[in-house]
Amino acid sequence: MDIRIRRAQPGEYDTLGEILAQAYLQDGLLEFGESDWYLDELRDVAKRAAAADVLVATQGDQLLGGVTFVPSGGPMADLARPSEAEIRMLAVARAARGRGAGEALVRACVDRSRATAGCTAVVLSTQRTMHAAHRVYERLGFVRVPERDWNPLPDVEGFTLLTYQLTL
Q1: Are 92 and 23 within 8 A, CB to CB?
Q2: Which residue in 19, 83, 118, 121 has the most C-beta neighbors within 10 A?
């Protein structure tokens, strides 16, 4: 059965939020675990959907994961410059990994970027330990841009996010 990428529906927001939260928790990606402020951000899909494109990967009636695509100049951008789109909060449920859902979500974001007038690049942030994600990004043509690495938590020393970019 093929993986399908489409916009998240409001009735899926809670499920998707929990998939994202659990993926980050289970992979040890939250600095403060269950008390991490970012957990609430991951779960708040409705907030993101009001300001960006939230996409989901499905297989049959199963929700596999999702991503937030921020078009060029979108308000949800953390890193993107005016002519860049941004990929944020990509996660696939642990039980659904290895089926290509993550790559399909990234490809959908790249396709949307190419269809966005004036968009010249796609950027994303990733943690150092997300090695499987790094391989997907590199396979799709993204390159590391170390001069754009950044720390969203200035009070937490050493928490630097790596930046990848795909020039369109």
Answers
A1: yes
A2: 19
CA dist 108 → 45, 133, 152 (Å): 18, 15, 26
In sequence order, the 6+-apart residues with CB closer than 8 A to the CB of 36 are: 30
Residue 129 pLDDT: 87
- 76 token code pair: 């949800």
pTM attached to this predicted model? 0.92
Q: What kind and span of H or E run contains 26?
A: helix 13-26
Does residue 24 contact residue 38 with C-beta atoms inside 8 Å?
Answer: yes
Distance CA 168, CA 161 (A): 22
User: How many other C-beta atoms lie within 10 A of the C-beta of residue 105?
Assistant: 26
Please report which helix (H) or strand (E) contains residue 53, including its range.
strand 53-59
3-state SS assignment for residue 86: strand
Residue with the larger pLDDT of the pair 137 and 73: 137
How far apart are the C-alpha atoms of 96 and 30, rounded to whole Å? 21
- Span 8-18, mean pLDDT? 97
Q: What is the CATH code for 3-167? A: 3.40.630.30
